[in-house]
Write a structure and sequence with these properties.
By secondary structure, this protein is α/β, with parallel strands linked by helices. The chain contains 11 helices and 11 strands. It holds the Pfam family FMN_dh.
């Protein structure tokens, strides 16, 4: 049988938290972040939030989507449109021909059992309930068979680190295909693993130097515009990294993305209440996106285009 990563029983007990229930409802994604920071062990939190070296790619991606979003030295704002019929705003769209309830899906991140006991199985069930795609990581801490079985109707893609042993990679691809995963997401930007300083200081060694996919460029939002221009409509373009609000989602789509993917925020939701926490987090950002569509006069995702945003020089 092909070996696979199944690490939940190998995790140090100190890394698996007992999380008490929250005292108040959470209103936005950064509330989930604050909750997770408070409740998770320091080494686990550092593993989730840390990046390689100075973490400038992570920080730039987040800063680019804060209130002042910049592209090529321009500030980007939503352009409000009034007296439009937005009674029936529809956030549904498709990716690779499959319908999803909103263009907000789940990026591949590893080691979900660090933040919730049944890890990726909770994430998969939440994605199925929300009607969005979940990209399962090569470094999942639950068996792929269990992930597929717990959410049999969910849209699943698989993130693949191509192994030097091509036969091993081929067998893994065949395995996930047999389990109903619909697409491969191949990581191509890791010629060498990054230097994760927090993990070194915490003496945390899980044989993984990247928790989240990173596009190593000046800001992913800058790279988005360049990639959209380069492919000229011949393929769908997706963005992950830095998305924290529904406004961020609409801006990314207006600049040409077909869909955005959430990484760290999903782990925050998982740390909050497992499956229910991820569902709640997704519901919040989907509602924010719905509001942004209404305020820009969009009834459907297909209507979102660059006219929905305005540029002003710094």
């Amino acid at each position: 049988m092909l070996p696979y990563f199944f690490l939940s029983k190998q995790l140090p007990d100190a890394l698996i938290p007992t999380i008490p229930g929250p005292e108040m409802p959470l209103a936005c994604l950064t509330d989930f972040q604050a909750f997770a920071r408070e409740r998770l062990p320091k080494s686990t939190w550092d593993f989730i939030e840390g990046g390689a070296d100075d973490s400038f790619t992570r920080d730039d991606n987040i800063a680019a989507f804060k209130r002042k979003l910049f592209v090529a030295e321009h500030r980007i704002r939503l352009r409000p449109r009034y007296l439009k019929n937005v009674v029936n705003v529809d956030t549904r769209t498709t990716i690779q021909g499959e319908e999803i309830t909103a263009p907000i899906c789940i990026s591949p991140t590893g080691f979900h059992c660090l933040v919730w006991p049944d890890g990726e199985m909770s994430t998969a069930r939440a994605a199925q309930a929300a009607g969005v795609c979940y990209i399962t990581s090569t470094f999942a801490t639950c068996a792929l068979e269990d992930i597929a079985a717990t959410a049999p109707r969910g849209l699943r893609w698989f993130q693949l680190y191509v192994h030097p042993d091509r036969q091993l990679s081929k067998q893994l691809v065949q395995r996930v295909e047999s389990l109903g995963f619909k697409a491969l997401v191949i990581t191509v930007d890791v010629p060498k693993l990054g230097n994760r300083r927090h993990d070194i200081r915490n003496q945390l060694d899980l044989k993984l130097n990247l928790l989240l996919k990173d596009l190593h460029s000046p800001k992913e939002i800058d790279a988005l515009a360049e990639v959209v221009a380069a492919v000229k409509g011949t393929m769908e373009v997706y963005l992950d990294g830095g998305i924290r609000t529904g406004n961020d989602v609409l801006k990314a789509l207006a600049l040409g993305a077909k869909c955005v993917f959430l990484g760290r925020p999903i782990l925050w939701g998982l740390a909050y209440k497992g499956e229910d926490g991820v569902k709640e987090l997704l519901n919040i950002i989907k509602n924010e996106f719905h509001t942004s569509m209404a305020l820009t006069g969009c009834q459907s995702v297909a209507e979102i285009n660059q006219d929905m945003i305005q540029f002003s020089r710094l």
